[in-house]
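Technical note accompanying the year-one report. For the benefit of new consortium partners, we illustrate the data format agreed upon in the data management plan: each record pairs a sequence with a structure-token string. No post-processing was applied to the example shown here.
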Amino acid sequence: MDYFDHVDFTRHADWDAFLAFVDSRSTRVVLLTSKAKTAYHKFTFRPDDILLFGSESAGVPLDVNQRADERITIKMKNGMRSLNLAVSAGMALGEALKQTGQFSK
């Protein structure tokens, strides 16, 4: 991946280490879930939001869902249960970058 040098990347040892990181920055954890009511394109993103995605089949555990500060969804056609994780991440990240003006011109 030739763009890796252009992103901030942090790997956390575990969930508690991630939460300590989040709490130290006073940022929001925005969970994408099929169970949310707010559509991702109607949500107001902030530049320091952390987008969190679960597995395509099971989502995230209940305690992770409860810890999220916000929950948003990508609306789908009735009868469809989920999108591919990479597609969902690209859609949400694209919208967040657009809203926060972080796309280069």
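Partners are asked to follow this layout when depositing records. The chain has three helices and four strands.
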